[in-house]
Design a protein that fits this description.
The chain is mainly α and 150 residues long. The chain has a domain of 94 residues. The chain is 75% helix and 0% strand. The protein has four helices and no strands. Helix 1 packs across helix 2. The protein is elongated, with a radius of gyration of 33 Å.
Length: 150
């Protein structure tokens, strides 16, 4: 009896250690996801900042170039400003769909439906115990449960 108690105690200790390790693993996975998200946000901010300044200097260069061609820098800045305003107005009027809609929910539902169709197991009632396999079908039930063409 003492040996069984010692084995049970050892099993309980091992189970508790395993649960603690699983919790630690889950915490580490969450921390990794948070770190990855922070890095992506920092990288996005860096790209946005450098992109903003690149666009600003490019537009300034274009404005100065157009102004040089027209004889005065004022006309170049006016031309670039009017072009940007026309782009904004065109986008406002047309309201294009710049990003396609996310169909993640429908994609997941379709994949789940395909997975259910691929399994040949008949559906079980909700009251069936977990882990039980469906009972063998009798001769009269077998003809009803077979799929056509099978």
């Amino acid at each position: 009896m003492t040996r069984i108690a010692a084995h049970t105690q050892g099993l309980f200790t091992d189970l508790r250690e395993w649960i603690d390790l699983r919790i630690d693993l889950a915490i580490l996975e969450v921390e990794e996801r948070i770190d990855e998200l922070k890095n992506q946000v920092a990288l996005g901010i860096t790209f946005a900042l450098f992109g903003f300044f690149a666009a600003l200097f490019s537009l300034t260069t274009v404005a100065l170039g157009v102004g040089w061609l027209l004889g005065h820098p004022f006309w170049g800045f006016l031309a670039v400003s009017v072009a940007l305003i026309l782009v904004v107005v065109a986008l406002r009027v047309t309201k294009p769909e710049l990003m396609p809609p996310s169909n993640l929910l429908w994609t997941l539902r379709e994949e789940r439906a395909r997975a259910y169709e691929e399994t040949d197991r008949p559906s079980r009632p909700a009251s069936a115990a977990v882990g039980e396999e469906p009972a063998e079908a009798g001769p009269d039930e077998a003809s009803q449960t077979q799929r056509p063409g099978a």
